[in-house]
Batch of 2 targets.
Target 1
Amino acid sequence: MNKKWMIGSLALSLGLLSAGSGALAASPPLSNTGVKSVAAVAPGKEGPALVNNLTVNSVVPLVAHAKALYTYTHRGGSAYMPELFQYNAMEYRFLSSDLGTKQKLLSYIKRAYTHKAAAYYVQNQFLEYKGRMAQVNADMGNLLQYEKAKARMISKDTASAVFELSVPYPEGQGPNETVIVNLKKVNGYWRIDTSPDILF
């Protein structure tokens, strides 16, 4: 089975993604698993996370989904050859058109993050220049495998939660990292309440 289908099948089986425009779709689960609908989709086409029953099992796919959203925005979206420009002696790149305005970028990030976390991320990691969103032309990141994390609940009530994740690197590349994830319930669904640039 190729990696795209394996990842799609994993997302499908974990019940994380919405059934928007994906190649694989399923009807809502029969039991109350905290998920309404699922699909495997291309980067940039992810629907909102629909986790309403937050557990040690559902927080890991939620964080993996949030990481995918972060990765897509952090690389500038879908543009293969982004338009570059100089600003304050630094090279910037415009984001692809699907993320090209502040509203589009915020809406995309809020698929897995609270408004506060998304607004902080947009304010601190992006530049609005001539009506378009841009970012410093650099690639950063880590190799942590959030989809393989193990979770431990630290605290949870009806509106907020804190989980500790033990996140592995690829085999042989270092010990697991401990990551604290703060979450809040927004309109019935759980969202990460930490800016993606701080979390990842």
Target 2
Amino acid sequence: MLTTDFVPGAPAWIELGSPEVVAAAEFYGRVLGWEYDGGLFRRYGSTVAAHVPLGAGAWTVHFAVADTGSAGPLRRLTDPQGAEFGVWRARDGAGLGAVSTPGALTWLELHTPAPEAAADFYRSVFAWEIQTIPGAPGLFCRPAGTGAGRLFGAVVEDSSAYWLPYFEVADPDGAAGAAEVAVEPYEVGGVGRIAVLADPFGARFGVMRSVTS
């Protein structure tokens, strides 16, 4: 699971890009209970995401590193299959204030046409430990040197390459009723109930009611 112990390679920050922050804030306030505050989205006072101006809707996940190789604390990159991601220099900020709680980031999926090659790339960049789980599709990721309880996401096969964030919610069906639905709510044994939605600007994201929530 995700935690706010941002060891190297762990998801530490997430940004929503969209052309209209007011509309984005209204949408995510309705669907995820977020409040917008000067470039940040908060839930119960904790930072759960950031907003950046962008011509089309998109999510960018940043992973913790010791050095971004640039002057700033954040750096945006693209993997060999075309999925955009970022790196976040831990010493320059506090990272997300909440994860794995209602309204906060709880899981990640890397969709890619070449799962094995993508997994090898991210392992070379972040030293992730990659594993399979019997009966479960995809390759599962966790930061180096951590246990099975620190799995934060999966690499799954798809025709295009992008990172799909999932946010914890109490009622995936209710969230789906307030947004454009890409994948209708369904149960995943041992995981929970999930759905994939899209915001008004086309940014896709998932919602999940975890079995442990």
